[in-house]
Amino acid sequence: MINSPSGPGLLFPKGGWENDETAEEAAVREAIEEAGVRGDLMDVIGDYQFKSKTHQDECCPDGLCKAAMYALFVKEELESWPEQSTRTRSWLTIPEAVDSCRHKWMEETLKDFSSWLEDKM
Hints:
Elements: E1 2-4, E2 7-11, H1 23-35, E3 37-51, E4 64-77, H2 94-100, H3 104-120
Antiparallel strand pairs: 1-2, 3-4
GO molecular function: metal ion binding; pyrophosphatase activity
Organism: Salix brachista
InterPro entries: DDP-like_NUDIX (IPR047198), NUDIX_hydrolase-like_dom_sf (IPR015797), NUDIX_hydrolase_CS (IPR020084), NUDIX_hydrolase_dom (IPR000086)
């Protein structure tokens, strides 16, 4: 998980995707840019809706966004990465991560990930 300069609690790397990439490619890119990790994208854990203060406009006054969350098998931690000056990565157990989440929808993602992980073992 990563911190955010905009407030307390921890988050998952996430963001929008460019017109020339898939959601999967965007997930891999965001993991590198925000958390400084590389690995193999595994399965989609689920789609989650949330409200974004930065994406409120006349087309979407409620700022509703949808995030597709993926499991990433991390194979490499980078010593330097694009957002390292504003973000710190943290390695946590699932219960620690649930307690540290800034957003309720990310807690739900962790619970779904925990179920996914149990099925894979």
